[in-house]
Amino acid sequence: MPDPFDLTGKVALVTGASTGIGQGVAVALAAAGADIAAAGRSEAGETRRQVEELGRRFLAIDADFSSIEPVQRVTEEAVCGFGRIDILVNNAGVIRRGDSIDFTEADWDAVIDTNLKTAFFLTQAVARHMLARGGGGKIINIASLLSFQGGIRVPSYTASKSGLAGLTRILANEWAKRGLNVNAIAPGYVETGNTAPLRADPVRSQEILGRIPAGRWGRPSDLGGAAVFLASAASDYVHGVVLPVDGGWMAR
Q1: What is the pTM of this model?
Q2: Fewer Cβ close by (within 10 Å): the C or N end of the chain?
Q3: How confident is residue 2, by pLDDT bands cut at 50, 70 and 90?
């Protein structure tokens, strides 16, 4: 019986794969057999090393996702490099912290443009390729616990991640019958650059740890299993799900 989690022969386009969650997801997909096209503005040498050590091909694509300008080029470069895109992981994102009463338009736009607007238009471009090629495709959005909750001092981030959950559902509604699976992963509190200020604050860090049943911060590698599942044939009848990977935070 074929392994439903085997990604051999598949190509995954992962945005923001140089560090953190994007790197953890890219390496997990490579371990399951996928070749990786990594798009982002940071050098991805460590991700390349790990992917190639697993025997998979790696393509770095330079792109700044603060606008939709690179969307079509990124799609074309991935297809030109590997011949196809089977899996898209929308991971690239930014965060701005500040009290809502003082939050600026610039900080609002920076987050919404990257986390929501560009994610939608990249998904649209890749979906057009997938539909034209035939054979289906897997789209995975990296959402957040703040797709479900409000959080504090991150109004544009909460809005963007809530919006990304909504996009996951509408695109699943429209594209499921056309052979595309659109789902999302909602990471909990993970050890990344975005959470460094929280981990450096002993009071806030302890408040967070006190609510996580697993008793620790997540690691980027903790997202790998969920990503492989949603990228593989094992999830062929899974559409429009926002899956928390949070150490039990949402169950508390």
Answers
A1: 0.96
A2: N
A3: confident
d(CA 114, CA 238): 26
Distances from the Cα of 225 to the Cα of 93, 110, 137, 183, 232, angstroms: 21, 30, 18, 14, 11
CATH ID of 11-244, from 3.20.20.60, 3.30.930.10, 3.40.50.300, 3.40.50.720: 3.40.50.720
- The distance between the two most distant Cα atoms of the chain, rounded to a whole number of Å, is 58
CB contact burial 148-186 (16+ within 10 A = b; e otherwise): beeeeebbbbbbbbbbbbebbbebbeebeeeebbbbbbb
| Residue 157 known to be catalytic | yes
pLDDT (0 to 100) of residue 166: 98
Predicted confidence at residue 1, as pLDDT, reads 73
